[in-house]
Amino acid sequence: MKIGILTSGGDCPGLNAVIRGAVLKGVRIYGQHFAGIRDGWRGLVEGDVFDLEQRDVRGLSKVGGTILGTSRTNPFDGNGGTESIKATLARLDIDAVIAIGGEGTLTAARRLSDEGLNIVGVPKTIDNDLSATDYTFGFDTAVSIATEAIDRLRTTAESHHRCMVVEVMGRHVGWIALHAGMASGAHAILIPEQPASLDQISEWVHEANDRGRAPVVVVAEGFIPAGHEHPHAERGLDTFGRPRLGGIGEQLAPEIEARTGIETRCATLGHLQRGGVPTAYDRILATRLGMAAIDSVVGGVWGTMVALNGTEIVHVPFADATDVLKTVPQHRYDEAAILFG
Ligand code: F6P
């Protein structure tokens, strides 16, 4: 059997470890052959593939990014959809596909599977927002990078008696903010799931400052302060009615400074959180998921994704992973909030 592998959507530390795990187990245990599909669904639509051999994956578990390349191409968005992919697979003699990706990728994979393709999924996102898996690889790395960055930002803030706002990734959910904020002892953590007003944020900042600390506010990029639910967005203005310049961290910093009188700076960590070597935890999780994906292919368990359940790797239907995002539950936020201020 010839198995195609693709990585799609935003990249994520651990993607190469998945590829390595799948190829090594697939070749050594099952005697399978592999095709590397370039740049996600684009490569599948256009037939841009290469023979993926054991030697190509040597030493890969510690390498960030993806040797396959990635893109945000959606196969159903004017790209031919199922029929064109089926034709490409037949032409290239590829019998099955392992799609490694986040919610968008797995939703496309689910539809392709429903329409008859032999496809299995591997969940990927630094955001950790996919249901049906306890953790996604890449999350631990992103949290470690963000935590180290916040630790560093704290010492400069302390030297200058400043407040520091640190914006981390998380468009829809606040897992990275929650974990990095808890790990680094942030005085406020702001996430999309939890409303917090500017008054409340200023109060937390004041409390920390009154105790002689340099206040640290960790904010997820998708956070919107209570009472400012994008009234100006459609006019190209930011949350506070000014020309949109930066993310929520950049927008919040001057508001905090104006309300508290404490000099405030912002650091936006951005794609730093997605780059570089994966942590040991992510390498192991990603490798195990890759090996389990090959088991799914060989067992013909189509239309499923591999997932982490406790300490075990399990196989779950695509539907379980794509129907709802895994948000931060109230009790996890309340637990962290005990430490604010
Ligand atoms: O979904 C992963 C993620 O890293 C989000 O946290 C972030 O909002 C987005 O991707 C950034 O995407 P891009 O790399 O396309 O700017």
Q: Which CATH class of the largest domain?
A: Alpha Beta
In round numbers, the mean pLDDT is 95
The CA-CA distance between the termini, in Å, is 58 Å
- By DSSP (H or I, 4+ residues per run), the number of helices equals 11
Hetero groups bound?
Answer: 6-O-phosphono-beta-D-fructofuranose
Q: Please estimate the helix content.
A: 25-40%
Number of strands: 11
Strand content: 15-25%
Taken in chain order, the helices and strands follow as EHEHEHEHEHEHEHEHEHEEHH
CATH architecture annotation name of the largest domain: 3-Layer(aba) Sandwich
Cofactor: Mg(2+)
Enzyme class: transferase
Domain Phosphofructokinase: 2-296
Protein name: ATP-dependent 6-phosphofructokinase
Layout: helices, strands, pairs:
Blueprint: E1 2-7, H1 15-28, E2 33-37, H2 41-46, E3 49-52, H3 81-92, E4 96-101, H4 103-114, E5 119-123, H5 139-160, E6 163-168, H6 175-184, E7 188-190, H7 198-210, E8 216-220, H8 248-260, E9 264-268, H9 280-299, E10 304-309, E11 312-317, H10 318-322, H11 330-337
Parallel strand pairs: 1-2, 1-4, 4-5, 5-10, 6-8, 6-9, 7-8
Antiparallel strand pairs: 2-3, 10-11
The structure holds 6-O-phosphono-beta-D-fructofuranose.
